[in-house]
Amino acid sequence: MKVLVTGGLGFIGSHTVVELQNKGFEVVIIDNLSNSSIEVLDGITAITGVKPHFEKLDLKEKVDVVQFFEKYNDIVGVIHFAASKAVGESVKEPLMYYENNIGTLVYMLQEVSKLDKQNFIFSSSCTVYGQADELPITENAPIKPAESPYGNTKQIGEEIIRDTCKVNDNLSCIALRYFNPIGAHPSAEIGELPIGVPQNLVPYITQTGIGMREQLSVFGGDYETPDGTCIRDYIHVVDLAKAHVIALERLLEEKNLSNYEVFNLGTGKGSSVLEAIESFDRVSGKSLKYQIVGRREGDITAAYADTTKANDVLGWKTELTLDDAMASAWKWEQKIRNT
């Protein structure tokens, strides 16, 4: 069965391609390489022994999207990762985020709606909840006004999919709201590969640990949390990737209860930024240099998932720990700096 993965050379996308191939799916990747590297294809192939199909394509170009689906008209499922994803950058460049994250989604849905098998997994985010009133966060928590244009693109994206599902009974969609993916494949063949200065915590930690960065800036030490730093639900990327395969199988086997479903993907446990640093120190044997600085615009105080629905309805749960994820991220960092 042929599956399209957009943004399939990115961090979460590449790990999901591996898990799909491990389950016997034939994978086609679309990526424009704007925030990824073609070498990731080799990493995927090294792990699975199978080289996925690859099309270098920018989803903002509607004509190219139409032509792609004319060529690959036997696709049975689409997992849509391709999007810009940095909160801070989105605050500075909102129109770029709306064009890249919303326009491309519309083009994708227009073409998926022409397929015989219309199964669509959307890469969403816990940012749709904003600063939730209650923790842990369930799927029924109210959607708050977004704290950033990036978060808003995920809210709008979900609304577009929901509206489309209402008028197209043949379309089955699942929105997966990730919490904070970290780590790397245990083989260290693929991992998080930020271009330029990392926007996410863990690559900044590992780059500081290996000496690329002088020290880590911890944004805000005065939040209403036990140690004053933000709390997040850090989930190992391999656990997250496996959830996408389970979600796709749910649609292919027609186990979905409606044609639009939403699941939170997290561990159910919140960890502070300082706890994440302590985890790195434990697995690396280092003592990371960091400095607490002012808060960053768009950041919320705390977010961690209620995973009951994902565990009981989707049939998925995490298996790997924060230390597992940090150790794999550190192994990956050491590999890419030493090759």
Automatic annotation (TrEMBL):
Gene Ontology molecular function: any one: UDP-glucose 4-epimerase activity
Keyword Transcription regulation: no
InterPro entries membership: NAD(P)-bd_dom, NAD(P)-bd_dom_sf, UDP_G4E
Recorded name of the encoding gene: galE
EC number: 5.1.3.2
Keyword Lipid metabolism attached: no
SUPFAM superfamilies reported for this sequence: NAD(P)-binding Rossmann-fold domains (SSF51735)
Assembly and oligomerization: Homodimer.
Ranges for domain NAD(P)-binding: 4-326
Family: Belongs to the NAD(P)-dependent epimerase/dehydratase family.
Cofactor(s) needed: NAD(+)
Protein name as it appears in the record: UDP-glucose 4-epimerase
Top-level taxon: Bacteria
NCBIfam families reported for this sequence: galE (TIGR01179)
Pathway involvement of the protein, from the record: Carbohydrate metabolism; galactose metabolism
Known catalytic reactions: UDP-alpha-D-glucose = UDP-alpha-D-galactose
Keywords: Carbohydrate metabolism, Isomerase, NAD
